[in-house]
Write a structure and sequence with these properties.
Elements (H helix, E strand, L loop, with lengths): L7 H5 L6 H12 L6 E10 L7 E3 L2 H7 L6 E4 L4 E3 L12 E6 H4 L3 H24 L5 E3 L10 H11 L3 E2 L2 H7 L9 H11 L4 H9 L7 E3 L6 H12 L5 E4 L9 H14 L6 E5 L7 H7 L3 E4 L1 H4 L5 E11 L2 E4 L10 E6 L4 E6 L15 E2 L2 E5 L2 E2 L6 H12 L6
Parallel strand pairs: 6-7, 6-11, 8-9, 9-10, 10-11
Antiparallel strand pairs: 1-5, 1-12, 2-4, 3-5, 3-17, 12-13, 14-15, 14-16, 17-18
Helix pairs in contact: 3-5, 5-6, 6-7, 6-14, 10-11, 11-12
Length: 404
């Protein structure tokens, strides 16, 4: 056997589904019911503990999954910030599928998985970026996830607000250049063979293309502040920044280390050298480092292993004799719906499809519909947006909401 992962054709052919969907389709076909048309909506059961909101993501994957299927897909725009419940406590449909149930039943598992993973990663990245108060954030998560999905992680980390990604393939799919510095292994090899790890900084500067920022790793052998000043001296104006990769350092307080490094660089005349911090960071630890003087952050595990968003798909209407009949299991809200938002107040309202456009209960302005037709009869009706555009949408919305 080779590596363990599903190929794209496995997903498209339904081989990654929960088996009960495959059995359901067999039963429906045997009884002549596979062509019964249903209206099924996707809602978020909850958001992770401590989150006030989440970011809806994964529409790109779902649109590709349903290509060529006799299904209509309605969805909020990729990158919409949402809460699970509307102003009145009704669960908000983020996506709706409409068509013969036998046509898309086996794709529910993959569809929910795409949304759960993409939304979880994007949401965490958005939270981290907001915590960084405008400073650059790089996704270093490739080593913290299965390599087959490392590009997926980087794609949605970038959507959420990360300014760069370390994975070569992830950057390629985004149409950007990969970002990174240097590992401790480079320093160790130079120390062992050359007797001086600082020669690694000079070799990096000598060998690599000039457009690659010169960021020296300065916590391998000596005191971080001393290494930082030495790197600045050796690279003589070519040093963009220094990286500290020891938040759990034996010295304990990373914010204090950042303050000391910043002070000693300035005292030595290196006012323009930036400080990059990586290793075990998240949205809770970053604000203190911002205050201490850190200029950029590399975040891996927190984003790559982000808690997923718990989505569910439920039928809420069935077409019987040409008429849509509101019908759902207990605990769900039946009927065909539209979701409206007041972009001034960030308030949502769920209404039955036939209702008139509502006004915001807060500011009384007309509310905007969010669910739009994306796929019709298996054909894409709305172009998949470039990641840069979705990223801008998310950053604009996160400026309107609180982190904690």
């Amino acid at each position: 056997m080779d590596f363990l992962y599903a190929l794209p054709e496995d997903i498209r052919e339904g081989r990654t589904t929960d088996v009960y969907f495959e059995r359901t389709v067999r039963v429906l076909k045997a009884k002549g019911l596979a062509d019964v048309e249903v209206y099924a909506e996707v809602t978020a059961s909850s958001v992770p503990k401590g989150y006030k909101w989440a970011v809806y993501a994964g529409l790109r994957e779902v649109a590709k999954l349903l290509k060529g299927k006799a299904v209509n897909l309605y969805s909020m725009p990729e990158g919409t910030i949402f809460k699970p419940l509307d102003y009145r406590g009704v669960k908000i449909p983020l996506m709706v599928l409409e068509g013969p149930y036998g046509e898309f039943a086996i794709y529910e598992t993959a569809l929910l998985g795409f949304l759960a993973a993409a939304s979880g990663i994007t949401t965490k990245a958005a939270r981290v970026k907001k915590a960084a108060s405008g400073r650059p954030v790089l996704s270093f998560g490739a080593r913290r996830t299965h390599p087959a999905i490392a590009p997926f992680v980087d794609y949605y980390a970038y959507l959420g607000g990360c300014d760069g990604v370390s994975c070569i393939k992830g950057a390629e799919l985004l149409g950007i250049k990969p970002s990174g510095t240097m590992p401790h292994s480079l320093m160790i090899v130079f120390r062992a063979v050359k007797g001086d790890h600082t020669q690694a900084w000079l070799a990096f500067d000598e060998v690599l293309e000039p457009e690659i920022p010169r960021i020296a790793l300065v916590d391998t052998f000596w005191d971080e502040a001393e290494e930082a000043v030495r790197a600045a001296e050796l690279l003589d104006g070519r040093l963009w920044g220094v990286r500290l990769d020891t938040p759990g350092s034996r010295r304990g307080d990373m914010a204090e280390i950042v303050r000391e490094v910043r002070w000693k660089l300035r005292a030595s005349g290196y006012n323009n050298v930036k400080i990059v911090v990586s290793g075990g960071l998240n949205e809770y630890s970053i604000p203190e480092l911002v205050e201490a003087g850190a200029d950029a952050f590399g975040v891996g595990s927190a984003i790559a292993n982000a808690p997923f968003i718990d989505y569910a798909m439920d039928i809420t209407a069935v077409k019987v004799n040409g008429e849509w009949k509101p019908l759902s299991k207990r605990g769900k809200f039946s009927g065909r719906k539209q979701v409206y938002r007041c972009w001034n107040c960030m308030i949502d309202l769920v209404e039955l499809e036939e209702k008139k456009q509502p006004h915001c209960p807060n500011c009384k302005s007309p509310m905007s519909p969010l669910l739009e037709l994306v796929v019709e009869g298996g054909k894409l009706k709305k172009e998949i947006e470039p990641p840069q555009k979705v990223r801008e949408r998310i950053l604009e919305q996160t400026s309107k909401v609180d982190l904690l």
